[in-house]
Amino acid sequence: MATTQTTVLRLVFGTEIPGKTTTMEFNSPRPDLTDAQIRPVMQSFIDAHLVSGTNGLITSIEGADIVSRLVTDVIS
Prior knowledge:
It is a single chain. Helices cover about 15% and strands about 50% of the residues. It contains 1 helix and 4 strands; from the N terminus they run ββαββ. A hairpin with a 2-residue loop joins β3 (about 50-55) and β4 (about 55-70).
């Protein structure tokens, strides 16, 4: 069995529809990212109206996480 680990930076934005969110994930983030580095980038996405989906434009910053996943292949 092979085991692999992946890490993503997950950005969560509020949208034009109250209570709905949109999530973006970026592979292989630096492990030392801080709020001060991430928040301005997220705000620039909002200010530039770059992202729109089924729930409308992104309108607010809801959160950001670095997520690690460990996957073990059972059948490969």
